[in-house]
Amino acid sequence: MSYVALQSRLNGYVLDVCGANNSVGASVWMYPFNGSDAQKWILTGDGYVQSALRTNDGRELVLDVQWGNPNVGAGVQLYYKNGTNAQKWSYNGSALVSWLTGYVLDIQWGNPSVGASLWMYPSNGTNAQNWNLMQITPPPPPTPPPPPQYCKLIFQSIYCD
Predict the structure, then answer these.
(1) With contact defined as beta carbons under 8 Å apart, do 62 and 49 qualify?
(2) 12: how many CB neighbours lie within 10 A of its CB?
(3) Is CATH 2.80.10.50 correct for 3-136?
(4) Integer Cα distance of 89 and 100 in angstroms
(5) pLDDT digits (tens, 9 = 90+) for 90-124
(6) Domain residue ranges in the chain
(7) pTM, 2 dp
(8) Per-residue pLDDT reduced to its tens digit, 33-56
(9) N or C: where does the chain have the smaller number of CB atoms within 10 Å of the terminal CB?
């Protein structure tokens, strides 16, 4: 499984689930990259932006337009995968476009600060709406310990008559 971080071209921060909250309705915001599961996403072939986080009962969580709200300024959150267009997205090389409305994921008011909120907004080409997909490579497997060293201790006896 190959994860990406969604890195803003506005400030270099990434899309992050606030407090790594794995509950339905968890907020997303902008935060410096730290490689945690709260910042790992999979852009699936069927349009989901799926979080590496799962609910306590193991259900998948995806980026969702809150309440399926089709209006400008609708918020975004994590929610159970339910198949609606409020959870489907296309990445066009720079913007994440919602299948619900055609609006794009936007950092509210172009706020470059840590903790900035996100919403849905018509495309205007600003960096508040432009995202890089930053590959997250898994850490290398731990180096195995060296094989045990076997030593042979040979006793020589000297017999004198």
Answers:
(1) yes
(2) 13
(3) yes
(4) 8
(5) 999 999 999 999 999 999 999 999 999 999 999 99
(6) 3-136
(7) 0.83
(8) 999 999 999 999 999 999 999 999
(9) C
